[in-house]
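Q: How would the structure tokens look for this protein?
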Amino acid sequence: MTEIFQIIIDFISNLNDQEFLAEMVRKYDTLLYVALLLIIFTETGLVVMPLLPGDSLLFTVGALAAATNQLNIWLLMPLMVGAALLGDNVNYFAGRFFGRQVVKRERIFLLKREYIERTQEFYHKYGGKTVIMARFVPIVRTIAPFVAGAGEMHYRKYIIYCVTGAILWVFGITLMGYAFGNIPVVKNNFEIVVLGIIFISVLPMFYHWAKARLARGRR
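A: Here is the predicted structure in token form.
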């Protein structure tokens, strides 16, 4: 178990170093699969761990599969979808239980009653597709299942959108990495590409944060 945690730390710490990661693929083989699934599960399943890599991790996995031919992407993608769904369900049912506690107490750690109420309004306005959209936004994809549970979204409705979002997220970004990650211009500037993916993925959060700040400043 200690070795798995070390692999996770090394992989996340060197996400923009394709040569180092390729060596990890050759060295650890099956253990690396386990480590990747644990990262996906933790990022989607533990509401207190929203800062783990998601989009950049999937792109990198696809690029490594193309570059090394040692990662079975067609096996790994369904497994990562399963890990994401398992995490989502843990988060959803945690929200069902702890969400009521947040409402009663106003706040538990970083979770406030107002966050749940605002997200409930968002769910009410945009419906189940919120679950799909949230999948592509860092931090939000970790919190959204919790809030869906806290807001008591009907589980059958939730899980349909959850499965759809997980498949689109994992297959879409991983295959993008598989298709483009081995192109010389991408391969030679892999660090910049990964950082660019991270930057693009956080743009929606920055936009909404800036919009909220401007709205408060006008009051």
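The two ends are 53 Å apart (CA to CA).

Residues 2-218 form one domain.

Upvote if useful.
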